[in-house]
Amino acid sequence: MSPTNQVYIAIIGAGGVGKCFLSQLQTLAARRPSPKLSLCYISTSKKALFKNDYAPIPTENALQALASSSTAPLALPKVVEFLAAAPAKVVLVDNTSSQDVADAYPAFLSRGISIVTPNKKAFSGSYQLWQDIFTASSTSGAKVYHESSVGAGLPVISTLKDLVDTGDEVTKIEGVFSGTMSFLFNSFAPLEGEGGKWSAEVKKAKELGYTEPDPRDDLNGLDVARKLTILARLAGLPVESPTSFPVQSLIPQQLESVATGDEFLQKLPEFDSEMEGTKAAAQNQGKVVRFVGSIDVATKAVKVGLEMFDRSHPIAALKGSDNIISFYTKRYGSNPLIIQGAGAGGDVTAMGVTSDLIKVLAQI
Amino acid sequence: MSPTNQVYIAIIGAGGVGKCFLSQLQTLAARRPSPKLSLCYISTSKKALFKNDYAPIPTENALQALASSSTAPLALPKVVEFLAAAPAKVVLVDNTSSQDVADAYPAFLSRGISIVTPNKKAFSGSYQLWQDIFTASSTSGAKVYHESSVGAGLPVISTLKDLVDTGDEVTKIEGVFSGTMSFLFNSFAPLEGEGGKWSAEVKKAKELGYTEPDPRDDLNGLDVARKLTILARLAGLPVESPTSFPVQSLIPQQLESVATGDEFLQKLPEFDSEMEGTKAAAQNQGKVVRFVGSIDVATKAVKVGLEMFDRSHPIAALKGSDNIISFYTKRYGSNPLIIQGAGAGGDVTAMGVTSDLIKVLAQI
């Protein structure tokens, strides 16, 4: 524990997850008098709040104060300097999905600044960055936790780490890793009833806020590929990048280059027949189609795309926008260890960040 | 971390879980040079191995050495004294299911000795013992972790703690908490096919080693009641004991007092009609019967017994001797966070103990 019994918290990012995290941090600080948690830096891409003497920023109105701030955020190397000079231990909470912030993790960690984050980019970018991050962490003793980078607050990363650290052999990881894809396929090819047309389901998902502003950013499979990259590396496979294994995109080739998401949605119905064919092929075998990722550790095969599942398979029975992750291991035998539940949303994502913070606080 | 960069490990219990743990400890010590883990005490109820100067006991042949030892175990107060006087931090691994050892936890903890254990008795005994354990831990700073007390190595306790610690509101916990009961009902009332007679399934389960030597020790529901007691307390309910809420026993009243497990099994077929009736009643509603535990946090209702589930419910679809635990919370909404997999067995139980040990080592 920090000798001064105080820990400084720095937050980059105040979007959906950032707002929920700030609220959870306030509750946490109120419930746990020790160590005293002091917010010393908070920024968006446009604005920042901080004092040169590290005077605590009140969490209860930090967002309003940030909105009316006229201070620009520090450049990342300056943030490293500012936090490294703080008079107590510091935990950086990266609530962005920024590659730039991720690229700076080795710099933060090597200066003794611990990191908790839902940002997938740091752990699914180049394998070099992955190595730099964990080397910096083990050299300085600063901690880096990223539970919410896969499955939001579901205990996915921690469970996989526990399996590996206790000497189990993970043989296969399989699941539905995208809330958006889960929602789309549970509606398009449900266990009960017919389901809607593919283009109509994509449109509905967008209207309900389940997709990125341009739905192609979900349909290209990259988000799932990033999560698979993280899990494969934790399972011991040195996967080079999320584009170094087969990833099936659900964007029709002719629509890859249309200018906007709206134009994409408008033209998508012309391509419904292909997805209808896939659905019918599964139905003819008494199965349903789902968008899944899998890692076969022995053959080092990582892949993302459509697969068919028996109607009694847990992946077929998924509901809403839930994720499901199955760990097949030597110890668990033929029945996998399964984790299931909401894998997206501000509150549950922030929960993973907050529980990571609690774990880091117990160790620094 | 311990100033000497060494941590002493003391193990009580060398049965099924103890043997698996010892093997995992050996792997762990070989993989992690720091802190150095030294086994300084190991005992069964009859024998012990230890040196007055805390000289390390080689883990690779500790079991053989223990078997040929002529030293009796120390009385528990003497074990406390012996470990408290060790020249470095100590973690006690209680691999027994002994109430006596559990009752000594406050004494160990108050002397700064951390504890990891699958022993349910400490956390499901009197509420006074529960309070004494956690008061001693928070006063001395010694840690106490018991992941494997519910669901073996499945991340049940850690997930519930994370939910509570990050400020989520757990509204309901429901599941199948006994591998034995899971196996019995998945065979007696399967989703596909007719299933066998109740008494025949109990006999088969015993032959396969899925039950206690006397199957009544599973069928009385107490094991499940103990697990529910632990989870309810973690969720904030001050449950007095595992007998302070309704627990349905599956032992026919007339067979409660027969002398032996064998006599019980011999007479059980005379009572098959009652369980057949329960199965038929469920079938008539298109459901299946399962033995479950549930905690309704708002109404403080904890109960254990038979319930009917829709055939599409995850509890109905369970396989083999798997456990399933569903956490309903404010953040997770209508779809619970679900954890599923093997909830019994030496290796997976020891895995929970070993991962607890890793967490304790990171903090002491």
Automatic annotation (TrEMBL), chains A, B:
Essential cofactor(s): a metal cation
Residue ranges annotated for the Homoserine dehydrogenase catalytic domain, each copy included: 155-358
GO biological process assignments: homoserine biosynthetic process; methionine biosynthetic process; threonine biosynthetic process
Record: residues binding NADP(+): 13-18
PROSITE patterns for the chain: HOMOSER_DHGENASE
Entry's Gene Ontology molecular function annotations: homoserine dehydrogenase activity; NADP binding
Active-site residue list: 227 (proton donor)
Record domain Aspartate/homoserine dehydrogenase NAD-binding: where: 13-147
Binding site for NADPH: 96, 120
Keywords recorded for this protein, A-Z: Amino-acid biosynthesis, Methionine biosynthesis, NADP, Oxidoreductase, Threonine biosynthesis
Catalysed reactions, as listed in the record: L-homoserine + NADP(+) = L-aspartate 4-semialdehyde + NADPH + H(+)
Lineage top rank: taxon: Eukaryota
InterPro entries per UniProt: Asp/hSer_DH_NAD-bd, Bifunc_Aspkin/hSer_DH, HDH_cat, HDH_CS, HDH_short, NAD(P)-bd_dom_sf
Entry keyword Transmembrane helix: no
Pathway involvement of the protein, from the record: Amino-acid biosynthesis; L-threonine biosynthesis; L-threonine from L-aspartate: step 3/5; Amino-acid biosynthesis; L-methionine biosynthesis via de novo pathway; L-homoserine from L-aspartate: step 3/3
Enzyme class: oxidoreductase
Family designation: Belongs to the homoserine dehydrogenase family.
Name the UniProt record assigns to this protein: Homoserine dehydrogenase
Source organism of the structure: Neoarthrinium moseri
Upper lineage: Eukaryota, Fungi, Dikarya, Ascomycota, Pezizomycotina
